[in-house]
From TrEMBL, chains A, B:
InterPro entries, A to Z: Aminotrans_V_dom, Aminotrans_V_PyrdxlP_BS, PyrdxlP-dep_Trfase, PyrdxlP-dep_Trfase_major, PyrdxlP-dep_Trfase_small, SP_NH2Trfase/AEP_transaminase
Organism: Deinococcus indicus
Binding site for substrate: 340
Sample GO molecular function, one term: alanine-glyoxylate transaminase activity
Key word Transferase present: yes
SUPFAM superfamilies registered for this protein in UniProt: PLP-dependent transferases
Gene3D superfamilies: Aspartate Aminotransferase, domain 1, Type I PLP-dependent aspartate aminotransferase-like (Major domain)
Protein name: Aminotransferase class V
Cofactor(s) this protein requires: pyridoxal 5'-phosphate
Domain (Aminotransferase class V): residue spans on this chain: 33-334
Family to which the UniProt record says this protein belongs: Belongs to the class-V pyridoxal-phosphate-dependent aminotransferase family.
Keywords for the protein's UniProt record, in alphabetical order: Aminotransferase, Pyridoxal phosphate, Transferase
Length: 382, 382
């Protein structure tokens, strides 16, 4: 039986993140219809703000898909791939493998470029397999391992070969500068509940003119009616009915996105680095070490830390959960081996991680974690 | 530029409906993760309540799709149709035609059974085309015209021929008894923002064992990874990660669904009839007449009224909108010809329609509408 969870939880997970206060307030706005003029005005604002967030040109088509980030991933393959297309998927974690699965379901011949777990994709491996490839797909920040893939270099290779580039920006866009136009990305998506700290249920997307041209050259309609690019444009640009968008979530995302742009991407990136460094400084004496070996391969927004030898992963996380602190462990091969500490949106703040340090001091019977954490945060106050 | 719409609007549309107060309150519950035990307990409650709402057996698989009703429609075709299947679609309005479009996109050979606008599908027309048909699809209540299609009779025919039956229950389930098991429906879906008065962004679905058997007999995976029945069951029944569900919307839907079941489907049905009759009584002297000729073909939850000759449809609806009252006109061929007054969830109450009567008295310079409306509601008080 469901019990009322009115308790506030400290979410240190790689998503969902705590909802931004401005988004929480916006969620309570009175209901309006998806075809009401106020909602079209709201959507136009959201589109402009998404262009700023993704670093696109002023005319690039942006929109919110009425679903989570996985639907954002799927819409790229559904609209831009047809049976028999050659698609190169960079797969060095769960989300890269999910991309390969989806591309295959939409009829692609999938070429996989892999890397050992905890390592970034090598652009040379991509370049070596580009012959005849129509689309390259890569996860910018691989949430399952805390690895940052070299999107700008991969984009250069895709451009040289005339291939489209789809980028999963779930852990990056909205938390630090994303340069879609400058890099040459054709389709990018994220989830509302990640770097923007909005409620889950929306996938903000950006679609380049090259991608739209590919869409218009399709031989057959995309099976995915719900996210058909033309249907989306009918609603977002021509204001004709397609499906009922979740207006309450639009209210909240609009507020969270504005808050993120008001703060600025460079400030947010600095916040992530600052808190991330303090966490590592605080935990290092206990034996926590970076899981990703090469510093340039480390994803700032999902801090993957290898656990000390003999550390009781499940037991400690369970005890933390009893204190209403959620920490996420590894997935698959890294289960029991690592923690993945989220540093997206409202999670990348001193207060929630100070709560973790306090609880760990008590649970592990060690001292000095909170003091080390606070000292590492100096001179920036909480 | 988006202006703050904190004004309360009177939504008399066929969706979205005003959010139920218990759902509005639940929307503000503190954030939790989609893998947290409290959310799995909440989901289990929702599944049980959906079984009650749809009138299924105790073991029928129910779930919420993380998208709107159209995604509910699409998931049925995506999972239950393969290339070359014979699908018979009952299409007597916009949503029936949408079904035909989707079925074709997933490779079906589509046979259309149509009826003139404003008339229900004739079961004999369905029976005449059943040879070799693997699936029948029908919209229970056609929102675009206010027509109720004879689902029980169509279900009997589908059963006789061993075909699956997909039913769009968007304007029916949650507002009056729906008998999925008794009738023999295999896949049913609705949208959260219709009869349940929850926020938009979720599609409650129910899937029969026959439908699951058909799914398991597929020769190829469904393209639609996001709503793959097996992926949904992984999350909803085995509690393994599939995609991030919109937990805030789950909170709200859970509260709205409980409120609906607490009230009871027969009470809700009576409420619809009562308010609908009062609206017709009040407006009849102005020349508003039922658009759907045969009383048994009239959908109770979307009252389609033919406008009086010379009535300034667009002008009056614009003037109502300036008073924050939203009324929906016709779609396509019925544009300018009809109004479609929603009677779903919280819209099927005297108060919002009294606001309409008051405004019309003033705008049209007529008297007695509100008094007639109130008299017709006697002896049940608002």
């Amino acid at each position: 039986m469901f019990e009322d969870p009115y308790t506030e939880h400290v979410l240190l997970t790689p998503g969902p993140t705590p909802i931004h206060p401005r988004a929480q307030q916006a969620l309570m706005r009175p209901m309006l219809g998806h075809m009401d003029p106020e909602i079209f005005a709201l959507n136009t604002d959201i589109q402009a703000d998404l262009r700023a967030m993704y670093g696109t040109t002023d005319t690039t088509f942006t929109a919110l898909l009425a679903g989570t980030g996985s639907l954002g991933m799927e819409a790229g393959f559904a609209n831009l791939v047809e049976s028999g297309d050659e698609v190169l998927v960079c797969a060095n974690g769960s989300f890269g493998r999910r991309m390969a699965d989806m591309a295959a379901r939409y009829g692609a011949n999938v070429r996989l470029v892999t890397a050992p777990l905890g390592e970034a994709i090598d652009p040379d491996d991509v370049a070596a397999q580009m012959d005849g490839v129509q689309m390259v797909a890569v996860v910018h920040g691989e949430t399952s391992t805390g690895v940052l893939n070299p999107v700008p270099q991969i984009a250069r290779i895709a451009r040289q070969h005339g291939a489209l580039l789809t980028v999963d920006a779930v852990t990056t866009a909205g938390m630090e500068p994303f340069h879609m136009a400058e890099w040459g990305v054709d389709y990018a998506y994220t989830g509302a509940q990640k770097c923007l700290s909005a409620p889950p249920g929306l996938a903000p997307v950006a679609i380049s003119d090259r991608a739209l041209a590919r869409y218009h050259a399709r031989r057959t309609p995309t099976p995915l009616w719900y996210c058909d690019f033309e249907g989306l444009r009918d609603y977002w640009e021509h204001h004709t009915y397609h499906h009922t968008v979740p207006v309450n979530l639009h209210y909240a995302l609009h507020a969270a996105l504005r808050a993120a742009l008001d703060e600025g991407m460079l400030t947010r990136k600095a916040r992530v680095q600052h808190v991330g460094q303090a966490i590592q400084t605080a935990l290092a004496p206990l034996g926590f070490t970076p899981y990703v070996q090469r510093p340039e391969d480390r994803l700032p927004t999902v801090l993957a830390l290898r656990l000390p030898d003999g550390f009781d992963d499940a037991g400690v996380r369970r005890a933390l959960r009893e204190r209403h602190i959620s920490v996420t462990g590894g997935l698959g091969a890294t289960a029991g081996l690592i923690w993945r500490l989220g540093l997206m949106g409202e999670t990348a703040r001193p207060a929630p991680y100070r709560a973790l340090m306090n609880a760990l001091e008590d649970l592990l019977g060690v001292q000095g974690l909170t003091a080390r954490f606070d000292a590492a945060l100096e001179p920036v106050p909480a």
